[in-house]
Amino acid sequence: MKKIIKDLNIEVLDIPFPKESNKQILSYLTGHTSWNFATDLGQDHLIKDNITKPNGNDYGFYRRTFGDVPQNEHDAYLNTMAQTIKHMIDEKSNFNIGIIQRIYWNMYVNSSTMVYHRDKEIGDNCISIVYNLHSNDGGTNFKDYKTITSKESQALIFKSDILHKGVAPKKIPFRFCLNMVCINNNK
Q: Is the pTM value of this prediction over 0.70?
């Protein structure tokens, strides 16, 4: 399936990435990786403020494996899987997606409450990809639009300066997805 939300220039693509490979990535993420609290730059105090309050929320969790990270945080397996997924997206997308700048793996739990953000600032000329590793009742919400529910092997492609946020699942304990920021070759 290919769907384009024209008002926001968001592309929704079903990718033929094998479900068994998604399961292997999920197994790896849950058993072989460490997670960090997610927050926008300069907002680290929000993590402490939120998790130390009764009924406090988190902003989700992330694992950065490529981009501006120390060499020991790179992960060859996860980066290879991300690159493979990107190649499949390249074959179907109307966007002219260039090289990957950053790879994040995201995990949301029921208590996660995210805020609207941009993956890159306005004018940075980048493309964001959100790839869902499994189906669940969470998703990605675009400001002034709606939530696109997570569907396994489905990718959302959009300009990185569009305001969006992750949405935590309510019916199952976790939501996992891949987030890549790439150069936009359409200038």
A: yes
